[in-house]
Design brief:
By secondary structure, the chain is of the alpha/beta class. It is built from 9 helices and 5 strands. Helices cover 46% and strands 16% of the residues. Helix 4 links the parallel strand 4 and strand 5. The longest helix is centred in the C-terminal third of the chain and has 23 residues. It is globular. It binds one DNA strand of 23 nucleotides through strand 1, helix 1, helix 4 and helix 5.
DNA sequence: TGCCAGGCCCTCTTTAGGGCCTT
């Protein structure tokens, strides 16, 4: 099974197009279902962190003031990821910040993103909802630390990814549930999921 | 405690609207 990079950002808001910036990034590399490496750093983008965000994440203006500048952190993160395909929970959010922050740093962001939330909506329609923490509890997966900190959320997303890959192997008999399959599954209309899984079935 | 945006999904749909999910 190929390596997958699971990423999570903490930010000042929801939209880089509206001026929001990243405050922390974490990436865990997953290979054969195991976390084989980790990257985590606060970053100083030179912007004010709203009180609401500090109460949500625990990340304060003082913490980012002492952190390395955002561009250097993003370039380190980009080197860490390389060409590894990426996964995030609600990936459209993290992909926007990945692309925006790397563009500010003058680097390309060509890695494909798959989304555990979109896949989970197809595999676990019976779940109470599809927030990361709820899905982690739903599957009795370990809480990795304080929610809404980047490394803890990336670790939980990696655990959820492992659960998804396990269920694809055991329920759908998919031999090697890789990133390409996740990309197909997240784009597949819900009624077509069984047919897609049958196409990937190993027996 | 929440707003912003954006992509996706679902339905009382498709010339649309609202909810979910991320910080």
């Amino acid at each position: 099974m190929s390596c997958i990079a699971v990423i999570d950002f903490e930010t000042t808001g929801l939209s880089p197009a509206m001026g929001d910036r990243a405050t922390e990034v974490a990436i865990v590399l997953v290979e054969n279902g195991n976390v084989v490496d980790r990257f985590q750093s606060l970053m100083n983008a030179g912007v004010h962190i709203p009180a609401f965000i500090t109460s949500l994440t625990g990340i304060s203006n003082a913490m980012v003031a002492a952190a390395p500048d955002a561009a250097s952190v993003m370039l380190d993160a980009s080197r860490f990821v390389g060409n590894t395909p990426m996964v995030a929970h609600n990936a459209s959010f993290d992909r926007r910040f990945w692309q925006a922050e790397l563009a500010r740093a003058g680097a390309a962001a060509a890695q494909p993103f798959a989304c555990t939330m979109l896949v989970a909506r197809r595999l676990y329609p019976q779940a109470p909802c599809h927030k990361l923490g709820v899905l982690v509890d739903y599957h009795h997966l370990p809480r990795a630390g304080r929610a809404h900190r980047a490394l803890a959320d990336a670790e939980m997303a990696a655990s959820l990814l492992g659960q998804i890959q396990h269920d694809l192997r055991t329920r759908h008999r998919v031999g090697k549930p890789d990133h390409a399959l996740l990309m197909n599954l997240q784009r597949c209309a819900k009624p077509a999921v069984p047919a897609l899984m049958a196409r990937y079935a190993s027996v």
